[in-house]
Write a structure and sequence with these properties.
Blueprint: E1 2-5, E2 13-17, E3 21-30, E4 35-45, E5 49-58, H1 60-63, H2 67-71, E6 74-82, E7 85-92, H3 96-117
Length: 121
């Protein structure tokens, strides 16, 4: 499963999930997201992931700037717990369905991984 989030103020890139790993490709930008400045790649083995959570928060500072920025003031964050630390991806609320799809795919692969290791099934 591949998730593509574009034109987001907080996250620009892709998330791909398979039975072995989660790969996050983020485009780094400078000057308000206008100039590309490199790429960050995170490859997380599925057996190192202990949980996934989604959180929605309101950022008042973004809402005050105007109607267009108001819509970007509601942030959805996907947190991937891996080896005792958290890896967070924040997107505007209108990309929440894509983040939910990614979380569902990760949880499905986590359940499958756990079932393979459980000898009582």
């Amino acid at each position: 499963m591949i998730l593509v989030v574009k034109d987001s103020h907080d996250f620009k890139g892709t998330i791909s999930v398979n039975y072995r790993s989660i790969r996050v490709d983020e485009c780094n930008t400078v000057f308000f997201g206008l100039i590309p400045a490199g790429k960050s790649v995170q490859n997380i083995p599925i057996n190192n992931v202990s949980g996934v959570t989604i959180n929605t928060a309101y950022k008042l500072s973004r809402m005050v700037l105007g109607v267009i920025e108001f819509l970007n003031g509601i942030i959805t964050t996907l947190s991937i717990e891996k080896s005792g630390s958290s890896y967070d991806l924040a997107v505007p609320f209108f990309d929440k369905s894509k983040i939910q799809e990614a979380a569902d795919a990760i949880n499905k692969n986590l359940d499958t991984h756990e079932d393979k290791g459980d000898l009582n099934l």
